[in-house]
Amino acid sequence: xxxxxxxxxxxGAGRIGELTVPRAGVTVETPALLPxxxxxxxxxxxATLEAExxxxxxxxxxxxxxxxxxxxxxxxxxxLAELFDFSGAIMTDSGSFQLxxxxxxxxxxxxxxxxxxxxxxxIGTPIDVPTPxxxxxxxxxxxxETTRSRLEAAEAVDTGEMLVNAxxxxxxxxxxxxxxARDAYGTDLDVFPVGAVVxxxxxxxxxxxxxxxxAAKRGLGADAPVHLFxxxxxxxxALAVAAGCDLFDSAAYALYARDGxxxxxxxxxxxxxxxxxxxxxxxxxxxxxxxxxxCEDDRREELLARHNLHVSYRELRTVKQAIREGNLxxxxxxxxxxxxxxxxxxxxxxxxxxxxxxxxxxxxxxxFHLSADSARRPEVTRYHDRLSRLSVSGDRxxxxxxxxxxxxxxxxxxxxxxxxxxxxxxxxxxxxAERPERLDRTAYEAAAAGVRRLVEANPxxxxxxxxxxxxxxxxxxxxxxxxxLELGVEQ
Length: 491
Known about the structure:
With 491 residues, this protein is of the alpha/beta class. Helix content is 41%, strand content 17%. The strands form 5 sheets. A 6-stranded parallel beta sheet has the order 6-5-4-11-10-9. The chain is elongated. The chain starts with a strand and ends in a 5-residue tail after the last strand. The mean pLDDT is 94. Keywords: Glycosyltransferase, Metal-binding, Transferase, tRNA processing, Zinc. Pathway: tRNA modification; archaeosine-tRNA biosynthesis.
């Protein structure tokens, strides 16, 4: 694999990076959006994407160009950059979508790769086999073997300076996705799209989407740029970035506009239902829902598509800023509350807190405890793992939600959801967390897990715990040898 991807910042598995695209002579900052351009149906011209949205990269379908009487020869003679009047990087797809939809395509793997090279594609794609969710395991394994052989064959094709995608398939089987990713990473190919996830997103199966992504990430190195194929709705960008995705391609901006649908970070609205625009992009400033509905069909579609792109690019900038400030998880949690299926996706992400913790910065902005899910964040997992390494002074230690007590050799503070905190770390991240006054029982249970870690790591120390109205579910998790007292209650 070529050294084309450099990481600049990170939070959880989310990262800001630089993808060098040699043939285009550009470096694309990630997370990045690739608007899909249909050569025959251009809702917005590529030159407009560059001028109005500062688009650095886009994607078009190489197979459609291959079979196009209108554009094939022009693409071969002029090259994509001139054909599209675009100076950034251009990725091309291979026809895999058409293969999954219609069962066959009229081109071989080597032919479509050479065609993509010849039309000046900057990032090309071999013909993988997109196995849909819930396919039988035997089918998923057989089609994955076909994809694997095509990736190996792609290495032998002379692609010049064109980077080449190595799609990761495996349906909804995490072990197949992980193995496929490991095999893809072992090739000389460059970018790693996680494929066949559109049906999951269309079905609001965000938890399974995240499980698929995290499985693929386990098989890839940290220097592997990851593309989530077909992920174009801004409501899930923060979640997908936190899971480790770097590139997103969006046909949604145009397809939704064609159907009169208006994208937001909280979901999708229908233009006919809107009385006010909740957005301040140029389109929404210059129009009201009523005046936009009154536009001619083509003009209305273009304006809606421009809005959809504005909200998409704005969300990616918001995600990048959250990574820089170290509060990506807070952003993901806020976005997740927009839909129950997004909450499922966020919880699936937290199920892999141990994996996220390996990439999560040790220190960043203030930890905001926003809900029961906050107690499962990787920062809490890390602190609990390290409790056994902390030294305890003396034979008798008080773990207290209140004041010190001279009868003990040392007093550690109790801070939910982390648990016991030694005096020397009381002002360290993430123990300075901002928390609501009315905590849920999950936070106390997490703190109790921290107490248990410390107690079990120090079997010769006598511990007492002075709590303030902890729920029974948390107290039940405290080891029996700890003397438990409730503050404000006479003993």
